[in-house]
């Protein structure tokens, strides 16, 4: 691995750069909270060769959103389901927008 490869990982949202302790600290929660959202299958941390959980920036954003909902009084299981549904809705809207763009005529003519 070259130095350029290592540096490019810093820009990779999916690279599992953070330990459980650091991840919990970054989003202001506990390690048990991260375990709970993992058990609810909201996020699945990768494992280091030693078996320790490692989190990406993308996963930390999801965990922070879950924490926000839980802090507002939403049960953790419901918070996880809400986030999953929000993600599915966003994906469906993205796909619909792509279909609409593909269906538009290449050279729309002005009507008089």
CATH class: Mainly Alpha
Helical run tally: 5
Structural class: mainly alpha
Strand order within the widest sheet?
A: 1-3-2
Order of helices and strands: HEHHEEHH
- What do we call the CATH topology? Multidrug-efflux Transporter Regulator, Chain: A, Domain 2
Kindly state the mean pLDDT as a whole number? 88
**CATH architectural name:** Orthogonal Bundle
- Relative helix content: 55-70%
What's the total count of β strands? 3
Roughly what fraction of the amino acids lie in strands? 5-15%
Shape label:
extended
Termini separation comes to: 62 Å
Major β-sheet, in short?
3 strands, antiparallel
User: Number of folding domains?
Assistant: 1
Name the poorly predicted regions.
Answer: none
Q: What gyration radius follows from the Cα positions, in whole Å? A: 19 Å
Description of the molecule:
A hairpin with a 5-residue loop joins strand 2 and strand 3 (53-55). The protein is 61% helix and 6% strand. It contains 5 helices and 3 strands, in the order αβααββαα. The chain has helices spanning 3-10, 20-27, 31-39, 57-71, 76-103; strands spanning 18-19, 46-47, 53-55. The chain is mainly alpha-helical. The chain starts with a helix and ends in a 9-residue tail after the last helix. The model has no long low-confidence stretch (mean pLDDT 88). The chain has a single domain, classed as Multidrug-efflux Transporter Regulator, Chain: A, Domain 2, CATH 1.10.1660. Strands 1-3-2 form a 3-stranded antiparallel sheet.
Furnish the topology, listing elements before pairings.
Layout: H1 3-10, E1 18-19, H2 20-27, H3 31-39, E2 46-47, E3 53-55, H4 57-71, H5 76-103
Antiparallel strand pairs: 1-3, 2-3
Helix pairs in contact: 4-5
């Amino acid at each position: 691995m070259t130095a350029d490869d290592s540096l490019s990982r810093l820009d990779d949202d999916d690279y599992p750069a953070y330990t459980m302790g650091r991840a919990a600290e970054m989003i202001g929660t506990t390690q048990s909270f991260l375990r709970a959202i993992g058990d609810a299958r909201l996020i699945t941390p990768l494992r280091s060769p030693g078996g320790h959980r490692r989190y990406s920036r993308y996963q930390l954003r999801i965990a922070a959103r879950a924490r926000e909902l839980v802090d507002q009084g939403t049960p953790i299981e419901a918070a996880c389901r809400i986030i999953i549904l929000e993600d599915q809705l966003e994906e469906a809207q993205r796909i619909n927008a792509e279909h609409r763009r593909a269906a538009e005529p290449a050279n729309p003519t002005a009507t008089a």
